């Protein structure tokens, strides 16, 4: 399993074609966004390679990962980093998606199912004015 620092499907292709990976771990924020990660996962499926999104420290990336994982047939397991439980992280967004008895529920809200909190927006406004 690898891929947290690979970029685009062209970065994953040699590893997948060579049979070097049984599981890809693309980071949506690094590999090229939602469309590119979906293409990477589709390509991996052709080679019978499973997928686990690399998710670390962002309620936005967590929400996007859950949506992608629900949409791909080769989803294997969800990575849930302990940092995702810290109040300084969970307060950045309106919804706090945490596993219950080891299970995450994919949000059915519009878009990715997540929004920035008023606190995060206020902090961004203060820094952008300075």
Which secondary-structure class do the elements indicate? mainly alpha
Helical amount among residues, as a percent range?
40-55%
> Could you tell me the strand content as a percent range?
under 5%
Task: Categorize the overall geometry.
Answer: globular
Strand order of the largest sheet: 1-2
Order of helices and strands: HEHHEHHH
As an assembly, this protein is single chain
- The residue-averaged pLDDT reads 92
Major β-sheet profile: 2 strands, parallel
Poorly predicted runs of 5 or more residues: none
Number of helices: 6
Distance N to C terminus = 43 Å
What is the count of β-strands?
2
Radius of gyration, CA atoms, in whole angstroms = 16 Å
Describe the structure.
This protein has a two-stranded parallel sheet with strand order 1-2. It starts with 7 loop residues before the first helix and ends with a helix. The mean pLDDT is about 90. The protein has helices at about 10-15, 30, 35-45, 60-70, 85-90, 120-130; strands at about 25, 50. The protein has 6 helices and 2 strands. By secondary structure, the chain is mainly α.
Brief overview, please?
The protein contains six helices and two strands. The protein is mainly α and 130 residues long.
How would the blueprint of this fold be written?
Layout: H1 8-17, E1 23-24, H2 28-31, H3 33-46, E2 50-51, H4 59-71, H5 87-90, H6 118-129
Parallel strand pairs: 1-2
Helix pairs in contact: 1-3
Distinctive features:
single chain; 130 residues; mainly alpha; two-stranded parallel ribbon; 6 helices; 2 strands; globular
